[in-house]
């Protein structure tokens, strides 16, 4: 029987910190479903379709073992539908703990069959998050070491379109 884990999140966009967690999850589970929350009340920088495409492009080498999908509603319902026994969440610093613990306890209350597995991110990604990367990119900072080349390119295009950074001649 194949072991399946869900790695849920906003992924707006995928960072190298997320990739680090996916690689760690792949050492424990046969298949990892990277599941983007489709939240109609929250518009991100990238559309859900763009985020999916960027994840696929960035993780080509794992394409046989990952599935990229989106979901709405309760995460535990989605996990059950996909036959997943585990939800993977990445932990960076202690600051993540409180909200993650609360979410894990709520998910356990909603469905006792699905376990939350916390994976500790690599030290170099401790301060990496999609929001700080977007903030830095908006001011033209070099974020190439924090995201995949595909995300880097699309982020630059988005910021140029929005008029935040000037197009290179
Ligand atoms: O990357 P994020 O934004 O921290 O991810 C949060 C996410 C998508 C994991 C969380 O918001 C979620 O699971 N939403 C689905 C709704 C749900 O199941 N809520 C109950 C648990 S509190």
Description:
This protein is α/β, with parallel strands linked by helices. It has one domain: HUPs (Rossmann fold, 3-Layer(aba) Sandwich), CATH 3.40.50.620. Helices cover 38% and strands 18% of the residues. It is built from 6 helices and 5 strands; from the N terminus they run βαβαβαβαβαα. It has helices at 16-26, 48-58, 75-81, 97-110, 130-138, 149-161, and strands at residues 4-9, 31-37, 66-71, 86-91, 115-120. Strands 3-2-1-4-5 form a 5-stranded parallel sheet, sandwiched between helices. The mean pLDDT is 95. The structure holds 4'-phosphopantetheine (PNS). 4'-phosphopantetheine binds at residues 8-10, 37, 74-75, 103, 106-107.
What's this entry about, in short?
The protein has helices at residues 16-26, 48-58, 75-81, 97-110, 130-138, 149-161; strands at 4-9, 31-37, 66-71, 86-91, 115-120. The protein has 169 residues and is of the alpha/beta class.
């Amino acid at each position: 029987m194949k072991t399946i884990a869900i790695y849920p999140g906003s992924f707006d966009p995928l960072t190298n910190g997320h990739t680090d967690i996916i690689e760690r999850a792949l050492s424990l589970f046969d298949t990892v479903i990277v599941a983007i929350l489709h939240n109609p009340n929250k518009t991100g920088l990238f559309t859900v379709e763009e985020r999916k495409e960027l994840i696929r492009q960035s993780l080509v080498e794992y394409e046989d073992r990952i599935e990229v999908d989106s979901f709405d509603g309760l995460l535990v319902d989605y996990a059950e539908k996909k036959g997943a026994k585990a939800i993977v969440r990445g932990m960076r610093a202690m600051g993540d703990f409180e909200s993650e613990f609360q979410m894990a306890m709520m998910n356990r209350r909603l469905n006792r069959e699905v376990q939350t597995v916390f994976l500790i991110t690599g030290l170099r990604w401790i301060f990496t998050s999609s929001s700080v990367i977007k903030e830095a990119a908006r001011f033209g900072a070099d974020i190439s070491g924090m995201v995949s080349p595909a995300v880097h390119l699309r982020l630059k295009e988005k910021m140029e379109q929005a008029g935040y950074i000037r197009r290179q001649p």
